[in-house]
């Protein structure tokens, strides 16, 4: 199953990926993430220096949230308190919420561990951890395109959702009430033991600043 | 107070035309100096963008947002949608956007009502919002006011607007190319999308396809293309939601002389088979082949054993017949299998369409069906044993076996086939699991084709023996031995009835068993009465028949009552310590998640009381000392899911592996993806599957 996809991946952006991987010293990206398949591997340290990877989160439902505090689309959901509410709701149910910052050094959104912790504090955010991915390795393994871009991994390590936070792709806070929050719906489906009904949606926001 | 006043009036300062924001100067232009009632008027939103910044197309690509306009128009005046000339590809690191740099032009057509008073100016207000990005993004907005005079006929073109209008029109698609074809990703094409566009002009120097919707293609991927016999063949990389997205987009070409053209494409997607879903990507041809093979193998599975007995009789009976009659019987048997498989499949698909979480073999999850089958097998057994004589159609169910009564041959063969299908259906055999799981995800027609091919496989050996004279000649001659065989075969029938009652005991507990045993008693008594009166006067025969019918009615009513009985302990088959010392826990998604979280290896067994293949596997492979020792060594948590009754969580779990039936065996090594085991287990096979997590040959057993 995966072999056929890998062959395809080799056919097109292989050279580019290889070159990039060589430059960054990162492992080659073998395949694009797909819902229903095992989530791509990662190994990234958080603001406290702790390393997070798939074995560390095995058996738990995980939400990955790509973020960049200066992006207007991220601000839409943090200034309104929408993102924090979702984080608290999820972590309250035993879900691990990992915010990921893939902004490269010198680019918008790139922060030091101390700055990231200060942002969490001032915004009263409630992620389980904030992962710092300045090389963009994890972001590219997941194909993270925008901030915010959200992924849900179930307890068996399968990617079950990827896409936008909701169905109103705007930067206006006025669009939050009445929007269908895809992440909340995916977590509810998982909690009910059902397959995630809406598994892939268009992520919207600023580009990830690789 | 003064501050409040300033704040109140601040918006008025921005109500102008043009409006300059930090990164953009926005203008609203009219093509002509005045508009006429009853006629359209062309407007243009112009965004002059700061160098190195850009705004977005209707599909912004990997990130970004298309501009939007909210209109405030006089009563009766309407505005059409915002137009989007073809975009350029803007690469941002590994990502790509579709957008505009320098200047973005968005034409809009407004409609002026016919009764608009000539001379009264139109006051048009456009509240425009856009996202503008360089390395980072800023949402901006402006309220643009335009007052357009009206006259009896549209006024002359506004010279100031001529150039931007011409540029906007040049960027809009020249036309639509019909008959473009987008081939969906398929294993055959290496997983890629192939766009085929009819092309009559000179070979372009550059070609790029912009998808109008997110998710269809990977926006950043290269688009290798070639020209071939009047067509452009463009290879695209599928996006994240390729199979769920309708193709729609714009093809942009650049000629050798630098002239750029764009064309609207709404390619048809002929092979829209959803190969991208979570189910294993099994082609229809392969699934059909596997279904046929599965049907063949079904003849050898333990769950079909009772039917083999019936078939053996049928074959013996055929020995005395001519080729034509034999072929007729073989075809009738095949028809019986197919009709019943068709009925079960139709019901399954109908229930699925109704949203019910059902799987193959679901009919045995309904206790009255199990009770009814127990009745049927008891009666067949009694008939074969010679305790009751049944005429006509019921006799046919038992395989006939009366060589002299050839008139009923075809009907008998048909009903034997039907019975084979009914009993064989619950057990998915090896090779069939994936085919069935694939089948139920398909639309009606292919799904039905797969299930019927399965039936064809089941019927094939019988049909072959019937139709090939050489094989038929090998059959023994009929004789007195057939009567002995017939009586002997009563016992597999009784055994099946006993098994069905046991299944019922798991499903409904003691209450259901009591009901069905009473029903069996009533039925036996009714048949005995009928038998005793069969040779008497017409009146007595009628009374006996009526008594038998009444007994049957009561028995069926009792069978229906079993539906209301509930098992004493749900998932009774899921819990327990087995003779080998194997300890199982009932499967729940939470248990599985918790066990995985502990970092322990997990073995999941999905089974059902009515699945004999499952029970045989447990008996000969799982519930053995060797496997129990291996599980103990590796501290394997053994989760058992019992699908005897309907269970949506287990149906979901099976669906997650592309399956729609039991058995299913899955081993989860810690921190690794799960491994699916074969549907026919041996102790050595199970232990091999556990390696390398649990080494097979541990020299010192830890028990």
Describe the structure.
The complex is a heterodimer of chains A (about 210) and B (about 700). With about 210 residues, chain A is of the alpha/beta class. Chain A has two domains: about 1-30, no CATH class; about 35-205, Glutaredoxin. Chain A has helices at about 1-10, 15-25, 55, 70-80, 80-90, 115-120, 135-140, 180-190, and strands spanning about 45, 50-55, 60-65, 95-100, 130, 145, 150-155, 160-165, 205. Chain A has a five-stranded mixed sheet. In chain A, strands 1-2 form a two-stranded antiparallel sheet. In chain A, strands 6-9 form a two-stranded antiparallel ribbon. In chain A, a hairpin with a 5-residue loop joins strand 1 (about 45) and strand 2 (about 50-55). The longest helix of chain A is centred in the first third of the chain and has 11 residues, at about 15-25. By secondary structure, chain B is α+β, with helices and mostly antiparallel strands. Chain B folds into four domains: about 10-170, Thiol:disulfide interchange protein DsbD, N-terminal domain (Immunoglobulin-like, Sandwich); about 175-265, Immunoglobulin-like (Sandwich), CATH 2.60.40; about 285-565, no CATH class; about 570-690, Glutaredoxin. In chain B, the strands form six sheets. A six-stranded mixed sheet of chain B has the order 20-21-23-22-24-25, with helices on one face. In chain B, strands 1-2-3-9-6 form a five-stranded antiparallel sheet. Chain B has a four-stranded mixed sheet with strand order 12-19-18-15, with no helix packed on it. In chain B, helix 5 (about 325-355) runs parallel beside helix 8 (about 410-425) and helix 13 packs across helix 14 (about 540-560). The longest helix of chain B is centred in the last third of the chain and has 44 residues, at about 490-535. The interface between A and B is large, with 55 and 55 residues.
